[in-house]
């Protein structure tokens, strides 16, 4: 497969439940958008709970995903771009 801009992931929705952060320094945002205030940075392998999918799908080349409302283990809530999360039984890119 040849992808001119890189082969990304398409993650249209994340269902409520337990997830793991796939990359280091993932931003937990106040609102479901890239330029929102960052509440904190999440670490790789950090566990979070998805509370709901925002339904707002955006592209961050080469990935397309929705923003999801999550809660951290210490109770902080905010939005994460869904491509940065995985369930425990999901393939890790």
Q: Would you report the number of β strands? A: 8
The CATH topology is what?
A: SH3 type barrels
Anisotropy-based shape: globular
Domain count: 1
Rounded radius of gyration (Å): 13 Å
Q: How large is the count of helical segments? A: 0
* Main sheet attributes: strand count, strand direction, barrel closure: 6 strands, mixed
- Please give the CATH class: Mainly Beta
Q: What structural class should be given to the helix and strand makeup?
A: mainly beta
Helix/strand order: EEEEEEEE
What portion of residues belong to β-strands? over 45%
* CATH level-four homologous superfamily name: SH3 Domains
Unreliable runs, pLDDT <50, ≥5 residues? none
Helix content: under 10%
CATH architecture annotation name: Roll
Average of per-residue pLDDT values: 87
- Tell me the span between the first and last alpha carbons: 16 Å
